[in-house]
């Protein structure tokens, strides 16, 4: 008996082949710039940000970590990629924690029926509905109006949370909507109050969802520039330094930055992947825990 | 059950109503912090741009006031109106193009790939480029599409064209194309999500009742993925309205969209004018967003 999946197009074997070829082409298109980035980051010293390669070198990586180390002035944007990277990392981690906690609270609340749940749901999504530059401009003008200097953390954090929170919230809501309520009800029946039920039952089961939401928060914040550009002030985050590097003269150094950003992202995803598999909920029915409390 | 709860010293909920009320009260407590913060973070920029858009334009900065100069300036300058029109033109081209490009990918992964693990790997493959810097991915199109770019070199090498094709870079088609690729993850995700939720028995039933694969596709699968399509279109439209970098790198700055005008005015310290553009951007987005919400009840879909 054919599988239900193949059943639907059993007579159209060629559709499958055409689609398979298309998906391969699509992935190639997706990875075209990615591959170019990796290759050109090893461009020779005399080469530019285009093909052909003028030999291979790690010159552009050296320039990245030691911009003043080379005497030759190439006329490129100086930048401060190391410190910008650190700032972006701190910002992204804070944004990740705050928006995940807020999203967990909001999604947990949304499971109950209460007055105003509908409008509040849409309010949460407004953050991604307002165009990025508008958010940036509005916040920048507000701080300017009340006379507070723009700062890469202080004034940027709200803008980032407005952008990441809706995504984290959607992820958490999706997970909660597929959540089996019976385990919680069992805990309540056994006398746990709602806080203990949440802490000992809901949260452990939700852990993979929370991780996914945190990962979303981190990556969206780490790469954000359209909102950040007008509120960050004089010290740049990493995407802003990259943006700056494209304004004067593009050199292969920008591709070296790209490779490093990719490696950081992969490291973060690796950590999350590990934590997600490690934290998968394993019920322990030993019957001992309750007596200890 | 109630007896058990009471025996542990917990007052049993007397009736269903009180429990619901209690839950609602807890929910309100939980929802307070995110709601206040989001209301502030959304409210601040919107109120600011509205207020400043009525300020008097000034050579360096602005003067408080309540004038319509900035809006009059916007709606009487041909280039601004063209930009407004162009922004919508690009949206009208990019959105259907993205649906055409992304739907088959989601369809293939959902219906033709059998192993769950392989499904996950292909989806991850589509998401990985999204985890690298979006800006650098835009810049990385230049060595591919430029006059001396790889694609032109290959095309000339195999003799399809004699001179480098100019249209590959710094043109509207190249801009549309790269937007579609760069944001594809926003489209594939929601489409796949709603496709995976389709009950396979519905498809089988249609086939058993004699529907052809084509009919099944149009009458069953497409209508059931409408929420995913609407969500994807919503995401892409919103990201597109606020984007200014692709126009600069791939469009070559020749063709600008509303977001570019805003950045340009801001760079010239013309904040009232920039605010007016921001207000126009929000106002023209609202009908589109409302229209999209006619096709999807996001709250029920999740």
Describe what this molecule looks like in 3D.
The complex is a heterodimer of chains A (293) and B (302). Chain A has helices at residues 4-7, 13-40, 59-65, 81-110, 117-129, 132-146, 156-177, 182-189, 194-222, 238-245, 253-278, 289-292. Chain A is mainly α and 293 residues long. The N and C termini of chain A lie far apart (54 Å). Chain B has two domains: 15-53; 69-301, MetI-like (MetI-like fold, Orthogonal Bundle). Chain B is built from 17 helices and two strands. In chain B, α4 (78-112) packs antiparallel against α13. The longest helix of chain B is centred in the first third of the chain and has 38 residues, at 16-53. Chains A and B meet through α1, α2, α4, α5 and α6 of A and α2, α4, α5, α6 and α7 of B.
Number of strands of chain A: 0
Q: What Rg of chain B, in angstroms, do the CA atoms define?
A: 26 Å
Low-confidence stretches of chain B: 1-15
> Count of helical segments of chain B?
17
Helix/strand-derived class of chain A?
A: mainly alpha
State the share of residues found in helices of chain A, binned by percent: 55-70%
CATH class of the largest domain in chain B: Mainly Alpha
The shape of chain A is: globular
Key traits:
heterodimer, A: 293 residues, mainly alpha, MetI-like fold, 2 domains, 12 helices, disordered N terminus, B: 302 residues, two-stranded antiparallel ribbon, 17 helices, 2 strands, flat
Question: What can be said about this structure in brief?
Answer:
The complex is a heterodimer of chains A (293) and B (302). Chain A is mainly α. Chain A contains 12 helices and no strands.
SSE blueprint and pairings:
The complex is a heterodimer of chains A (293) and B (302).
Chain A: H1 4-7, H2 13-40, H3 59-65, H4 81-110, H5 117-129, H6 132-146, H7 156-177, H8 182-189, H9 194-222, H10 238-245, H11 253-278, H12 289-292
Helix pairs in contact in A: 3-11, 4-7, 4-9, 4-10, 5-7, 7-9, 8-9, 9-11
Chain B: H1 2-7, H2 16-53, E1 56-58, E2 61-63, H3 69-76, H4 78-112, H5 116-127, H6 134-139, H7 142-145, H8 150-157, H9 172-182, H10 184-196, H11 200-208, H12 213-224, H13 226-241, H14 245-249, H15 258-267, H16 271-293, H17 298-301
Antiparallel strand pairs in B: 1-2
